Amino acid sequence: FYVEDIYTYDLMAAPTEAGLALAFDGELAWRQNWVSFFDMFAEDLVVTIEDLTVYQQGDLATVYGLTRLEGTIVDGPYVDMWVRETNLLRRVDDRWLVVHDNVSVPFDFATGQALTNLGPLGN
After folding, report:
1. 98 pLDDT above the threshold of 70
2. How far from 119 is each of 11, 49, 94, 101, 122, CA to CA, in Å?
């Protein structure tokens, strides 16, 4: 699903040999992030995508939407939160592959807190 040199921003920091980084650099690091993400949850994880929008021109496409994550962290709390997601794709050999992925939540500068309780309008 990804180009080998994918560069991504995720909710979690990227582990590197030098410590934590702001971005995941490369398909191997990004794949390991997904493995770690799924390992955090018990088997009740549900992922829902809403307001998916796609713009495409030539061999490039942008996809964005809202993603809801619902599930129980192993030995932890139940999580129910919405995130914002934007992906840039490039057509390579007639396959659409993700070049960049960005996942975020809004941030309240006054309190220093991530606003994980917000959802789409009407939810």
Report:
1. yes
2. 16, 12, 35, 20, 8
